[in-house]
Amino acid sequence: MTIQLYNTLTRSKAEFVPIDPTNVRMYVCGPTVYDFAHIGNARPVIVFDVLFRLLRHVYGAEHVTYVRNITDVDDKINARAVRDYPGLPLNEAIRRVTETTNAQYQADVTELGNLPPTFQPRATESLPEMIALIKRLIAKGNAYVAEGHVLFDVGSMPDYGKLSGRSVDDMIAGARVDVAPYKRDPMDFVLWKPSDAATPGWDSPWGRGRPGWHIECSAMSWKHLGEVFDIHGGGVDLVFPHHENELAQSTCAHGTQVMANVWMHNGFLQVEGEKMSKSLGNFFTIRELLDRFRGENLRLQMLMTHYRQPTNWTEAGAKEARVILKNWYDAIAKVEDEALGEAPPAVVAALSDDLNTPEAIAELHRLRGLAAKSKDAARALRAGGVLLGLFGQTAEAFRSWMPAGSALDRAEVDALVAERFAARQARNWAEADRLRDVLADLGVAVEDGPGGSTWRAL
Ligand code: AMP
Ligand code: ZN
Q1: Other Cβ atoms closer than 10 A to 262
Q2: Per-residue pLDDT tens for 86-114?
């Protein structure tokens, strides 16, 4: 089976042909770790995790290398460190900001059902590679030093702008570029900038300073994936300037035609029909939503829209996905102790068509319809869901999930259900009914069977 992918660079869908099928290489821009990730940030993580799973399925798990970086050098991080840890030396304060934010991020994306990438390099571990790239760019006439800064000379690259397909005038308007006096051209962008004594910095041939954002990804992808690799991904907001500039830096430094063969971008996520913003009250961190919805619930909701389309996160949509998932879990419960079988061909085919997750989900619905009568359909539903990163728990654990901050935790609900069952056995119907009402008030539905009672969160 071949995989078709839409390529931002060529603006068309084409068959994906890896450079080396024994080592398929993908790079996705990761978070800048200074604050909680929001639900929009979850989209590229989930989308490219599905692609990672598909590539592993097609080429073999050991033949895919996925790099998602952690940007731990950034002026926003420095500002946050000063604000949150005013008494600490700056380096220590920065370390705390990046470590706590990264730990939170890892916990969030794991709960959303994402596999760990093969490598998660931090920008601060690749300073030698950044400096080496900048030196090459200067030596080749693609970059120049001005007032302690090193700038990429956009005029030295005739086809600069080909990824975003913008004219230079559009780019200037769109990027609100900094027209600094030391720039030869307003579009020239920073590779290296000087640090004063109060700002983190590294020694370099151009004095003590720190890298620009774009060079970080060129260095980390080079270090882990080589000069040219297969797929580069991120959100559509990264096409310009970030990816355009990564591409310019890497191809000029290495003298290659391309940086990555395929560039993929997910569409943006809005919340309740509007751009997420703190002032509108529709800004949700992943953490906040995970207190109310299971990770798989949010994941399924995200995958119901094709990754290139804009998507609208709504409370109603989250509840709808919850009902679907519950329904699917009910159907697979009878086969969940078996070894996992092959993913159904129709699901693999849908994903191979530029990650058509809505189509894959439609196939899972169809299998759900057959599962009551067919164990094979239940098995296929389970294997197809697993390929999408769903069904990471047992049906029992799914049903008895309690939101964080609920009045009771699982063990307490178990105890109340057992107490009620004992009351029933003692034929104390009044007490059994009272406990049923208590549980219903707590959002728990009880179902009685011959050997005991089971429960699920409503
Ligand atoms: P940032 O931390 O802002 O650099 O974003 C990290 C990743 O999340 C990038 O790939 C962005 O393109 C992506 N991203 C940020 N906001 C959204 C959004 N509202 N919808 C979809 N993707 C987003
Ligand atoms: Zn990047």
Answers
A1: 22
A2: 999 999 999 999 999 999 999 999 999 99
- How far apart are the CA of 240 and the centre of ligand 1, in A? 13
pTM for this prediction: 0.90
Residue ranges of the alpha helices (H) in 85-230? Answer: 90-111, 127-139, 168-175, 213-225
- Write the single-letter amino acid at 170: D
Say yes or no: CB of residue 126 within 6 Å of ligand 1.
Answer: no
User: In DSSP terms, which residues pair with 225 in a beta bridge?
Assistant: none
Ligand nearest to the CA of 267: 1
Torsion of CA 43, 47, 53, 58, to 10 degrees: -170
Across the strands, what pairs with 192?
Answer: 150, 211
Distance CA 327, CA 232 (A): 36
Three-class HEC string of 114-133: CCCCCECCEHHHCHHHHHHH
Ligand 1 mean position to 235 CA, how many Å? 5
pLDDT, one tens digit per residue, over 148-186 is 999 999 999 999 999 998 776 776 665 656 678 889 998
Residue 45 CA to ligand 1 center (angstroms) comes to 9
CB contact at 8 A, 455 and 399: yes
Contact 308, 265 (CB under 8 A): yes
Tokens of 307: 């990754």
Residues 6+ apart with CB under 8 A from 144: 138, 150, 151, 153, 184
Nearest to 228, CA basis, from 15, 14, 45, 24: 24
**pLDDT number for residue 173:** 63
Q: How many helices (DSSP H) and strands (DSSP E) are in the chain? A: 16, 14
| 425: exposed, middle or buried (Cβ count in 10 Å: 0-12, 13-18, 19+) | exposed
Could you identify the residue written with the tokens 């539903």? 381
Residue whose CA lies nearest to ligand 1 atom number 16: 40
Residue 234 C-alpha to ligand 2 middle, in angstroms? 8
233 lines ligand 1 (CB under 6 A): no
CA–CA separation, 441 vs 388, rounded Å? 34
Residue having the nearest C-alpha atom to atom 17 of ligand 1 = 40
